[in-house]
């Protein structure tokens, strides 16, 4: 399964740029700053290498490099805050980062370098076609997928992007644990309701459950990092205009909701595998899935809160992931609701919900570049068609009920039932002065 975010990347920083001339005479202090820059360079190289591949096998090494640098970075922020007077004479250091979510940014939409060059922040192109517009602005990026970059003299932007890199690495680690399980699990949970379904062996089941639990934990930890950025980093960036929207409350909330929604998806699968009687209670997974769909919806709402130029700059991978993720999750909820109505001998509604699920998945399947296209195809090809045929036969031979419209089906949707995926609180490393 292709991950929808990219690694943020950064440029080299010299130790002398992080200390004013007077403090550079302190050999012990300068030595610690040099050590910090060495760790930063190790992190930078790891980020650069990971950005060139979809192979997640080295994610653990990347996370270790980021966490090692964060130990020193949190210390540096603490030292800076407690010695602000000593830093007044320091020439501004430019921290440069490349966005994790923006691949094409249109300056004509109001995000030009001139506007964003104030108050310590700026943005510039990282390749791609550049063309003139009648407004005198530049349209940057063109057909390029290269990442947009921004720069600032604020140490809090450095902290924010480093934490963002950690959260994304944790999310990637989660995907590395479920990359080969996604469509199989999605289909298997529904197949469990189909007569003659094949049940996985206990050893296979235990292995899959362990992978799902560990992946859900990584996603909850990522959500905790996003929350830490919102609570402790973004307030320090008020008044600083950056050229990319990565470090804005709406984007951080969006990323947190996506992490929790995906953690919930994994939790539903664990619950289904542990619940030996889930064939008799399809209303529960339906309610769970509707709750997950609401979290995707909240993420979409947060994205739409951005200004039009910022919204259009967001990577299509992210927008497609949220849109199609909503549809796939909603379709699965419809399958379980169809089972609920079939059990209650309301065959017209059973056919209606199943047909609605079929339409949603067909819509996703048509988008070949969608992250969720394979899942949609597997669901359509696997458990959905036999169940749809079964419900239609039941209605044609027993029920003789009219099939309700989509509007009527929406009126019958229950409210989602909250799951147990909450953000794991991120605790910064202990500061050793």
Give a verbal description of the structure:
By secondary structure, the protein is mainly α. 58% of the residues lie in helices and 4% in strands. Helix 4 packs antiparallel against helix 6 and helix 6 runs antiparallel to helix 7.
Secondary-structure blueprint of this entry?
Elements: E1 9-10, H1 27-50, H2 59-82, E2 95-98, H3 113-116, E3 121-124, E4 131-132, E5 138-139, E6 149-152, H4 155-178, H5 182-191, H6 202-233, H7 249-274, H8 283-304, H9 308-313, H10 316-343, H11 347-365, H12 373-399, H13 406-411
Q: Terminal Cα separation, in Å?
A: 43 Å
**Could you give the order of strands across the largest sheet?**
1-2-6-3
Helix content: 55-70%
DSSP helix count?
Answer: 13
Count the beta strands. 6
Computed Rg: 25 Å
The main β sheet shows up as: 4 strands, antiparallel
Mean pLDDT level: 82
- In percent, how much strand structure appears in the residues? under 5%
Tell me, what's the shape?
A: elongated
SSE series = EHHEHEEEEHHHHHHHHHH
Structural class computed from helices and strand pairing: mainly alpha
Précis, in short:
This protein is mainly alpha-helical and 433 residues long.
What labels would you give this structure?
single chain; 433 residues; mainly alpha; four-stranded antiparallel sheet; two-stranded antiparallel ribbon; 13 helices; 6 strands; 58% helix; 4% strand
